[in-house]
């Protein structure tokens, strides 16, 4: 009988650890209690590097997370739903942007509060958005010149083959 008690105890311990892990993971993804946060919507041109569970920050402090990402088939933009902790009021003229922690850092969603006294209601949409900036695209523009061959004074500039554009 002692052999069965050991198996039951071990099984119960494994089950308790699994439940604790599932609870922790759901809170990390923003799937926890809905009463302690509210949702806001935004549409981005690009959400590169952002996934469900990505941090939402204000002034560098985590205030929520991304709970939903979907492609809008009408506008071909990425529709995102983010949660913000209760008690944090977001002005209605705020900006939301996909930002990066550095050259090799991960992406996060940054809310830059505006100066309005009116605040966004739960479920409202943040209109002013800025999508992710691709590091590869920036590097290609830098390396390739990416500029117009016209001079700043409006006159034509010579091209590499000696002709003038």
Low-confidence stretches: none
Mean pLDDT, to the nearest integer, reads 81
- Secondary structure class reads alpha/beta
Helical content, roughly? 10-25%
Main sheet characteristics? 7 strands, mixed
What would you say this structure looks like, in words?
By secondary structure, this protein is α/β, with parallel strands linked by helices. The chain folds into two domains: 1-32; 34-144, no CATH class. 22% of the residues lie in helices and 28% in strands. It is built from two helices and seven strands.
How are the SSEs placed, and which strands pair?
Blueprint: H1 2-28, E1 37-44, E2 55-58, E3 61-71, E4 78-85, E5 95-100, E6 107-112, E7 128-130, H2 135-144
Parallel strand pairs: 2-6, 5-7
Antiparallel strand pairs: 1-4, 2-3, 3-4, 5-6
